[in-house]
Amino acid sequence: xxxxxxxxxxxxxxxxxxxxxxxxxxxxxxxxxxxxxxxxxxxxxxxxxxxxxxxxxxxxxxxxxxxxxxxxxxxxxxxxxxxxxxxxxxxxxxxxxxxxxxxxxxxxxxxxxxxxxxxxxxxxxxxxxxxxxxxxxxxxxxxxxxxxxxxxxxxxxxxxxxxxxxxxxxxxxxxxxxxxxxxxxxxxxxxxxxxxxxxxxxxxxxxxxxxxxxxxxxxxxxxxxx
Length: 226
What we know:
With 226 residues, the chain is an all-alpha fold.
């Protein structure tokens, strides 16, 4: 019991100050998705706490992903007018983004010769963590591996996003937001807000719809994995 309390308090004690730090200085290396896990890993190593023990003691934190996923309905309702106005673009962007994400992951896994469980965990890397961890096992993957791939995908998306968009014809803020939301999920929405509130909203919607579509297609993705 004492170790479980320590693990939970340590996680919260690292996350909330990190969140404040990132709000004050929004730099990539201060992002809580990157810095908090790194600091937590260092703490576990220094305290000689096995990862399996930490995961067992903090398993209820993963339960919170369920309500977080349901909470995605809020921005959909709040921006329903924007959805009605741009439904065709949202639909096309979601289908194209999910197709490209799953297809490229499958090809990457095949080219690298990744073992089955690792390859399957990679397939849903381009959606936000609540969705990805929720369906990881349904596509034959492992939740913790999928979570790692999700973070790496988000970081890669915001690091290379501006370079890729600079090579394309001039796009509106909404198009930029859609690109970040579909390719880099939560981190992409943060980056998209640099182009204005409409871009951030569009990124959020693409992130949510991509997660929903990938969840619905989980049985088909599992068939692809086999």
